[in-house]
Specification:
Keywords: DNA-binding, Transcription, Transcription regulation. With 202 residues, the chain is mainly α. The protein has ten helices and no strands. The protein folds into two domains: 57 residues, Arc Repressor Mutant, subunit A (Orthogonal Bundle); 131 residues, Orthogonal Bundle (Tetracycline Repressor, domain 2).
Length: 202
C-alpha cells in the first residue's frame, strides 16, 4: 500500500517515477496510466498535478536540468588556453551527465521520439560546449594554431564522440571500460581531438 503523501511530496514522487519510465521507454512508450500505476495514484489524481503527459515530460526535464553544470564558473576558475578550458568543460559536462543517467537515456529516446520540447532541451544542453569549440577553432585558425578544418563540423563530431563515451561508460550493465574512470576516458578523448585538429599550444 502506498504511503499517503502531501502535495509537494506527491509531485516529487510523480516526477521521480516518470523520469525512470521516460528514460526506459521514451515519451511515446508509456502512458499516463502507466505513470499513475507506478506512483500508486489514479490517472485523475495525477492530472491534478500535471494537465497532460507533455506537461509532465517537460516538468521532468526541468527537474533534471536543476543539476546542470555551471560552465561559466568552470571557464573563469581555471586556465584560459583552449586545451585546458575544453578539458574542464568536458569533464564537468560528463560528470553531470553520469550523475543523471536517466537524462542521457531520455536524450537518446528523444532522437527517435521527435518530441519538440526534448529536442530543444538537449540541443541547448550541448550548445554551450559546441559553440565554444566552434568559436575557438575559428579563432585558432586565424592564428594558424590548428590545421585547416571546418570548425562547425569539428564541434559536431566532438559532440558525438563525447556522447559515445557517455553511452559506453554510463549505460551498459557491464562496463567495457570498468578499469578506466570516466575522467580518464574524457581526458583521452580530448587529447585525441586536439591532435586531430592539429592544435599547437602557445
Amino acid at each position: 500500500m502506498h504511503k499517503r503523501l502531501r502535495g509537494p511530496e506527491r509531485r516529487a514522487s510523480i516526477l521521480h517515477e516518470a523520469a525512470g519510465l521516460f528514460a526506459d521507454k521514451g515519451f511515446h512508450g508509456i502512458s499516463i496510466d502507466d505513470i499513475a500505476s507506478a506512483v500508486g495514484v489514479s490517472p485523475a489524481a495525477l492530472y491534478r498535478y500535471f494537465p497532460s503527459k507533455e506537461a509532465l515530460y517537460e516538468a521532468v526535464l526541468d527537474a533534471l536540468a536543476c543539476t546542470r553544470e555551471d560552465y561559466i564558473d568552470t571557464v573563469l576558475a581555471g586556465e584560459s588556453d583552449f586545451a585546458a578550458v575544453l578539458r574542464s568543460l568536458v569533464r564537468v559536462f560528463a560528470r553531470g551527465m553520469a550523475e543523471q543517467p536517466d537524462l542521457l537515456k531520455m536524450e537518446l529516446h528523444s532522437l527517435l521520439d521527435g518530441h519538440s520540447a526534448a529536442e530543444v532541451f538537449f540541443e541547448h544542453r550541448w550548445k554551450t560546449l559546441t559553440d565554444y569549440i566552434e568559436f575557438s577553432l575559428t579563432e585558432l585558425q586565424r592564428e594558424e594554431r590548428v590545421g585547416p578544418l571546418d570548425a562547425r563540423l569539428s564541434a559536431l563530431m566532438f559532440q558525438g564522440m563525447v556522447r559515445e563515451v557517455l553511452i559506453v561508460k554510463c549505460l551498459p550493465a557491464h562496463d567495457r571500460f570498468a578499469e578506466q574512470p570516466l575522467e580518464a576516458l574524457v581526458d583521452g578523448l580530448v587529447d585525441l581531438f586536439l591532435r586531430a585538429v592539429g592544435y599547437a599550444d602557445q
